[in-house]
Design goal:
The chain is of the alpha/beta class. The chain has helices spanning 25-35, 42-55, 62-71, 75-78, 84-101, 103-109, 112-121, 148-156, 230-233, 255-263, 271-286, 303-311, 326-336, and strands at 5-9, 138-142, 189-192, 195-205, 212-217, 250-252, 290-294, 318-322, 344-347.
């Protein structure tokens, strides 16, 4: 079996660039909400405030909050089941906006760890991306909504003529035209398992069995400052009666939504993307000879799906857990999956 490495990135990888860990999200959104200009962003400010309100006095993650919303646990607070999905949309917008605002300051940090990570993935690689052999058998899966990996990649490589996420570059499942969700099977893949800030589902094309979802990711551009306000997310409805009409639904989704998508057909705009990306991720892990988990704690709603993926990693010879709490994570993994015990290695250092 040819050697194939898969790297799985979690929130710990982006912590040093100013992005919150799961339990820090409430405080982060509170701070972001206070920074918004109420004159330019009243609807966005309300989405943030509504989301913070639902956290209440808990320090639970936004993933748990969304699970409670769809589960009906917060119906009394939000005014009934008809308001579940709208409040999840508010949480999605709040997360997108808060993360997009951080990009300027994150760039100022130089994202050294991500730069070094790219050097590890592609040692001695030249600047022209398309000259690197496309059969490179390493892949990166990330749970993070941020675009730090992409920002470091854009600074490192030249790929003129192709979209950043296209099959010839990051091979993330979205084509330059945004119509087909496909991959180059043997090439390097960078998969965003829960979508991304700067990701959008726009429309549908075709009819019947040929109907396809149009979705795309915006590539981060050095020097481009995104003005995060109402105008970035909202437009007036065509009849003038829907002031919260979205220009384009974000291609960002939470673990509960992803679980629902994978178990049944859904009406979510990102249905096709989520299915194909998680299918690709499962295939990559099942063929991996080395799996490196960095800054990811195997906790929360995604824990069991990820453990099931690891159950299919029949060719894996080494499972490396890297992070400041790596020893604790390894201990829990060995309890849950004793068959992995001899494969697990702990690297208790930060990303």
């Amino acid at each position: 079996m040819p050697e194939s490495k898969v790297y799985i990135l979690g929130a710990g990888c982006s912590k040093d660039c100013g992005y919150p860990l799961g339990a820090e999200m409430k405080a982060d959104l509170e701070q972001f909400g206070r920074s918004l200009d109420s004159a330019r962003s009243p609807r966005l400010q309300r989405a943030v405030a509504d989301t913070v309100e639902l956290f209440g006095t808990t320090t639970e993650t936004i993933d748990v909050l969304v699970q409670k919303l769809y589960g009906g646990n917060l119906d009394e607070i939000i005014g009934g089941p008809q308001n579940r999905h709208p409040r999840v949309i508010s949480a999605t917008l709040a997360t997108c906006a808060a993360f997009l605002v951080k990009e300027a300051s994150a760039r100022a940090t130089g994202f050294r760890a991500y730069r070094e990570f790219l050097s590890d993935l592609f040692p001695n690689a030249e600047t022209q991306w398309l000259r690197i052999p496309q059969s490179n058998r390493c892949h990166v899966l990330t749970f993070n909504y941020d675009r730090l990996f992409e920002m470091a990649f854009v600074d490192r490589f030249i790929f003129s003529g192709y979209g950043l996420y296209d099959v010839r570059v990051l091979n993330s499942g979205v084509t330059l035209e945004g119509i087909n969700i496909k991959f180059t099977p043997e090439a390097f893949s960078f998969l965003k398992l829960h979508g991304s800030v700067g990701g959008w589902t726009v429309d549908w094309t075709g009819t019947g069995s040929t109907k396809q979802q149009i979705c795309y990711f915006e590539a981060p551009v050095a020097g481009k400052v995104i003005t995060v306000d109402n105008d970035y997310f909202f437009s007036e409805g065509p009849d003038g009666q829907h002031p919260d009409h979205l220009k384009k639904p974000p291609l960002l989704f939470f673990p509960y939504q992803r679980q629902y998508i994978l178990s049944t057909e859904s009406g979510f705009a990102f249905d096709s993307y989520a299915r194909e990306v998680w299918k690709r991720a499962t295939e990559l892990i099942s063929n991996a000879t080395d799996i490196h988990v960095i800054g990811y704690s195997f906790s929360g709603i995604d824990r069991e799906p990820m453990l099931k993926m690891l159950d299919q990693a029949h060719h894996c010879r080494r499972l490396v857990i890297q992070g400041l709490d790596a020893e604790r994570i390894c201990y829990k993994l060995k309890l849950d999956r004793p068959q992995l015990g001899n494969l697990i290695q702990s690297v208790p250092i930060r990303f």
